[in-house]
Amino acid sequence: MSRKIIEMHSIVKNYYIGTPNELHILKDISLEVEEGDFVSIVGASGSGKSTLMNMIGVLDRPTSGEYVLDGIPIRKMNDNQLSDVRNKKIGFVFQTFNLIPRNNALKNVELPMLYAGVERKKRLERAKELLTLVGMGDRMDHQPNELSGGQKQRVAIARALANDPAILLADEPTGALDSSTGRLVMDLFHKVHEQDGKTIVLITHNPELAEETNRVVTLHDGMIVDDRPGSGKAAE
Amino acid sequence: MFLKENIILAISGLRSNKMRAFLTMLGIIIGIGSVIAIVSIGDAVTNNVSDTMAGLGANNIYVYVAPNENDSIYGQMDGSGTQKMDDSDLLTIEQIERVQKKFSNEISDVAIYESAGSGKAQDGHLYANVSIYGANPGFGSVQNVDVQRGRFLQDRDINGSRRVAVVSDKLVSNMFEEGTDPLGKKINVDTADGVNTYTIVGVYKYVQQGMAGMGMGVADKDITTTMYIPVTVAKETSENQNYSTFEIKLKHVNDTHAFTDRIEAYMKHLYENNPKYTCTAYNMENMLSSVTSMMGTISIAIAAIAAIALIVGGIGVMNIMLVSVTERTREIGTRKALGARSSYIRMQFIVESVIICVIGGIIGIITGIGLAAAGVALLKMKLVISLPVIFISVGFSMLIGIFFGYYPAKKASQLDPIEALRYE
Question: If you measure CA to CA, which chain B residue comes closest to A119?
Answer without folding.
Answer: B2
